[in-house]
Amino acid sequence: MPPEELRGWLKLIRCPGLGAAQLIGLVKQCGSASAASSASRSVWSAAGIARTVRDALDSLDTHQHESDAAWCEEPRRGLIPWNDARYPQRLREIASCPPALFYRGDPDLLLLPQIAVVGSRNATPQGLETAEGFAAELARRGLTITSGLALGVDGAAHRGALSVEGNTIAVCATGLDRVYPSRHKTLASEIDRRGLLISEFAPGTAPRPENFPRRNRLISGLALGVLVVEAASESGSLITARLAAEQGREVFAIPGSIHNVMARGCHRLIRQGAKLVETVDDILEEIGGQVGSWLRSIPVADEESKRAEGHRHQRILDALGDQPCAIDALVEALGLGVDQLSAALIELELEGRVAPAAGGRVMRLKGPAAPVADGGSKR
Fold first, then answer.
1. Nearest to 139 by CA among 194, 216, 83
2. What is the pTM of this model?
3. CB distance 127 to 153 below 8 Å
4. Collapsed DSSP state (helix, strand, coil) of residue 57
5. Using one digit for the tens of pLDDT, what is the confidence trace for 128-170?
6. Which domains are delineated in the chain?
7. Within 10 Å of residue 65's Cβ, how many Cβ atoms?
8. What family is reported (predicted)?
């Protein structure tokens, strides 16, 4: 993007009182953001924009959008305006689409098929493990995992995708020169390096309560569907699910115990028509028609790798026996790395063969084991 065009967009984005629809309409009318930002008051008036808004444009601090431009010109930073080919078409179609997106990382990820994974900031340990496991498997199948960088389920979803070298997008409710929550600075840096962070808010924007619902509409708008892992009865995740339904996206929910308050939001969604999800395949059944060719392009493990995985799973199940077992004891007994063991336990839990137990232990569930020859997997 030419420097004068970038500065035109940044100036318009910073203009107080200029709504997204007005901004986009003005750029269309003038042919470019640079022309729109320098157009006369009569042109703005003809576009239905109040004189006071045009006056506000003239009173902007020029140092501010020069600072914005300097930020955008750094490596792996930038701005994607509404009329840029990299701006995702799915987002263009939603109500009140943002006129531009600031980004950190790889903007090409915006054009890939995405699934949003959201849930409670105060998720249970099992909810966090479920979110990470589902995100990892969906990413392994070739889908990009989109979430909001919040504590709890959001962070687990991002980590799940990264754990299998998959793609993840964090949609932020602040300017991208800061990280909220601050506890996710390391995670945000990893997403910056290996994925993508985006925001409709200019650098310097602080976390304000009204920004989070706005952020949520982008999470759902970018995705083919939204998976809710855990949510209380009053939850921001339910807002994201409602927005997804309004935008014509699929809504998925994972059920939980009737005694778990974090499952009540998911149960409400299921009663309202969301698809009950027990495995990743439940999601792929719904969206396969939209991304089938993409998913088929993801290489599957060869037979030797599948057999090795099956034997590893069976060793874990044999080591568990009939009593709950501590993770440290399994690591010592099997000689596996913690990361390798954790990944295998997540897969086994998704298959319904193990479950978390009290005291951070894990237990084997009763039921027929899958044959080792086929890798012990439903994939």
1. 194
2. 0.78
3. yes
4. helix
5. 999 999 999 999 999 999 999 999 999 999 999 999 999 999 9
6. 1-71 (no CATH), 108-296 (3.40.50.450), 303-374 (1.10.10.10)
7. 23
8. Belongs to the DprA/Smf family.
